[in-house]
């Protein structure tokens, strides 16, 4: 019997997901900003797993990470949005207040973005045209998250319906315009 990954690759992510929706999704909500931009240490910081809500982000891709989880170099998970306009937006926040927005998009063909998995591209949306250097610490965190997502993306606990709604980044740019994909 073929692996779940092989089946998804052979028949195309959208088709596979439309016919094989399995499991449940763990979802979350946004993390409120720190009062007055305080630089509290985020080492070991983690909140309880988000409670299930319809339409929230594909938290199962990040499991066991949750809102508030430290992901390295002073960055922590602030929010994971529902799949809209073909992507789920993962918002990372640094203890100094910097914010990084990573769009989780369907990967088709050559990888795009800072990092990728077998099924997804992790595209850092920083307002540039792809010509700005990526902050090194943020780039390393995003690559680490890609490795983490890779281990979860074919989990039998994942909601493949969320993956089916994701689109390749280039198609999103054409359909919605770059100015609307922040």
Q: How large a portion of the residues is in β-strands, by DSSP E?
A: 15-25%
Order of helix and strand elements from N to C terminus: HHEEEEEEHHH
Terminal CA distance reads: 41 Å
How would you write the strand order of the largest sheet? Answer: 1-2-3-4-6-5
The biggest beta sheet reads: 6 strands, antiparallel
Low-confidence stretches: 13-55
Global outline: globular
What's the gyration radius in Å?
Answer: 16 Å
Helix content: 10-25%
List keywords for this structure.
about 180 residues; alpha+beta; six-stranded antiparallel beta sheet; 5 helices; 6 strands; globular
What does this 3D model show about the protein?
With 182 residues, this protein is α+β, with helices and mostly antiparallel strands. The protein has a domain at 56-153 and 167-176. Helices cover 25% and strands 18% of the residues. It has a 6-stranded antiparallel β-sheet with strand order 1-2-3-4-6-5, covered by helices on one side. Helix 1 crosses helix 2. The protein is globular and about 35 Å long.
Summarize the structure.
The chain has 182 residues and is an alpha+beta fold.
Give me the secondary-structure topology.
Layout: H1 4-11, H2 13-19, E1 70-72, E2 75-80, E3 87-94, E4 99-106, E5 115-116, E6 120-124, H3 136-152, H4 160-164, H5 169-176
Antiparallel strand pairs: 1-2, 2-3, 3-4, 4-6, 5-6
Helix pairs in contact: 1-2
